[in-house]
Specification:
Blueprint lengths: L9 H51 L11 E2 L14 E6 L9 E5 L5 E6 L3 E3 L2
Antiparallel strand pairs: 1-2, 2-3, 3-4, 4-5
């Protein structure tokens, strides 16, 4: 009686490992791009929300709260601003965002319109 061997051959295993390596090489750069975009958008949302809070507080004559720092770093603190001292709020996305190549800018004089400039000089408004 002939004994049948079961299992994978070395060649089959090498082919599977090569295919997984190729897929990982394709997927990893795309994943890194998604995480950067996500960090940038989270910072944009945080800056826009803070700009809205500042506008409401200033218009109602209330005290402006301190700037949040969950998704952004270096957010302009508007504490103490009044209707006559409104300026621009700026923020930088935390890693893995495009902190070195751009940031967030909210023009408080024109209604708190926020833009994000990151990557290769692209600008987007939510």
């Amino acid at each position: 009686m002939k004994k049948v061997q079961q299992g994978f051959t070395l060649i089959e295993l090498m082919i599977v490992v090569a295919i997984i390596g190729i897929l990982a090489a394709i997927a990893l750069p795309a994943y890194q791009n998604y995480t950067k975009k996500s960090a940038n958008r989270a910072c944009l949302a945080e800056a826009k929300a803070y700009a809205n809070v500042v506008l409401v507080a200033v218009n109602d004559g209330q005290t402006v709260p301190a700037a949040p720092n969950k998704a952004c770093t270096g957010t302009t603190d508007a504490t103490g601003w009044t209707i006559t001292t409104l300026a621009t709020i700026t923020a930088t996305p935390k890693a893995p965002g495009d902190a070195g190549t751009g940031g967030i800018s909210c023009d408080m004089v024109n209604g708190g319109n926020c833009t994000i400039t990151a990557g290769q000089g692209s600008t987007a408004t939510p």
